């Protein structure tokens, strides 16, 4: 594996390592990288000398900024199936990570967004640092949380996951642990030392012992403090009602959340809320990934994903023209269409 490979794969002692290696793009995932990770996991699972797997990111900016959204936009504009094929393999990888036969350790340092959450937060040992910014930013780009994100956020305490999903808010280390996206906080400067220590583990049970030597208490987050107004305002299946409650509550943070939601794609906000509520009732990650695949494929046929990516990533004017432009204009039939079977069929996970 050469240093210019998009994923650096190697075995050090008893530890198999995968380093996402597109630092200039904050290690954004493309289809080739997903397939490389899948093939590597296959091999390492059969390798008796490998005790555990570690994933991290090259460079100083983060583990992974998400999927290659420019490629998704290109696919939507072209009307082809490139994005759907990418999502199929990506979601199968997410499911594989969650059920992997060996301990899967993720260093969630720096930026961990969207697809970066998918290759880390389904692991068994998830390490954040003081630099971590973890989130699902999809409503910002006219999309809906995927890679199992609606599964994870639907299982956060109270309505914290609903708040994070609708606003696309990223959280720091303490809040990431609090909502169930991570397990441990380790100072970023100690990650190389932790990685070296993990190369000498001789059993799965030794991992917790090793990690515990590096864990430190993170700086306090805000979500636990804000839980009162978040739970009160987001405990509804109606997006307009949630916004009204946020505006009426009185807390400045609640009013700010309302304004944020109203700046996001109205179709994405309503579809995300419906997806979260369905995910909460689902029995497994696999069921939710099947649902997310349907929703993602549906987004290819609507105007907002291409427009959101244009505004945030391509032209960077931060001024998307959503269609429709308000929550009131998005009716139940618009939302329901997002859950229709994907043209290419199910993932086959359930």
Task: Describe the overall structure.
- This protein has a single domain, classed as 2-enoyl-CoA Hydratase, Chain A, domain 1 (Alpha-Beta Complex), CATH 3.90.226.10.
- The chain has 16 helices and nine strands.
- It has helices spanning 31-46, 69-78, 82-98, 115-118, 149-154, 160-167, 173-179, 191-198, 205-212, 223-234, 239-249, 252-263, 266-281, 285-299, 304-314, 332-337; strands at 7-12, 15-20, 52-57, 62-64, 104-108, 111-113, 125-128, 133-135, 184-185.
- A hairpin with a 2-residue loop joins strand 1 (7-12) and strand 2 (15-20).
- Helix 1 (31-46) packs parallel to helix 3 (82-98), helix 3 (82-98) runs antiparallel to helix 14 and helix 11 runs antiparallel to helix 12.
- The protein is globular.
- The two termini are 35 Å apart.
- The mean pLDDT is 97.
Summary keywords:
three-stranded parallel sheet; six-stranded mixed sheet; 11% strand; 16 helices; alpha/beta; 350 residues; 2-enoyl-CoA Hydratase, Chain A, domain 1
């Amino acid at each position: 594996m050469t240093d210019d490979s998009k994923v650096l794969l190697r075995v050090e002692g008893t530890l198999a390592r995968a380093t996402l290696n597109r630092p200039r793009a904050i290690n954004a995932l493309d289809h080739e990288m997903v397939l490389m990770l899948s093939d590597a996991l296959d091999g390492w699972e059969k390798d008796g000398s490998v005790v555990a797997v570690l994933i991290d990111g090259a460079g100083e900016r983060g583990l992974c900024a998400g999927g290659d959204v420019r490629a998704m936009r290109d696919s939507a504009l072209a009307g082809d199936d490139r994005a759907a094929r990418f999502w199929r393999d990506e979601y199968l990888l997410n499911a594989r990570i969650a059920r992997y036969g060996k301990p899967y350790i993720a260093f969630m340092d720096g930026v961990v967004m969207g697809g970066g959450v998918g290759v880390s937060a389904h692991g068994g040992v998830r390490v954040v640092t003081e630099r971590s910014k973890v989130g699902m930013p999809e409503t910002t780009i006219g999309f809906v949380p995927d890679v199992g994100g609606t599964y994870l956020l639907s299982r956060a305490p109270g309505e914290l996951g609903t708040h994070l999903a609708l606003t696309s808010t990223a959280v720091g280390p303490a809040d990431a642990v609090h909502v169930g996206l991570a397990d441990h906080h380790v100072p970023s400067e100690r990650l190389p030392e932790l990685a070296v220590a993990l190369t000498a583990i001789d059993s799965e049970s030794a991992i917790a012992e090793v990690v515990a030597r590096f864990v430190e208490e993170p700086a306090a987050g805000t979500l636990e403090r804000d839980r009162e107004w978040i739970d009160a305002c987001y405990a509804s299946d109606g997006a307009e009602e949630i916004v009204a409650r946020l505006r009426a509550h009185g807390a400045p943070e609640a009013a700010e959340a309302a304004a944020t939601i109203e700046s996001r794609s109205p179709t994405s906000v309503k579809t995300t809320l419906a997806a979260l509520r369905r995910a909460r009732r689902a029995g497994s990650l696999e069921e939710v990934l099947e649902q997310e695949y349907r929703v993602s494929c549906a987004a290819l046929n609507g105007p907002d994903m291409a427009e959101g990516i244009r505004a945030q990533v391509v032209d960077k004017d931060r001024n998307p023209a959503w269609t429709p432009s308000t929550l009131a204009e998005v009716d139940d039939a618009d939302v329901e269409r997002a859950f229709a079977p994907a043209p290419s069929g199910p993932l086959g996970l359930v």
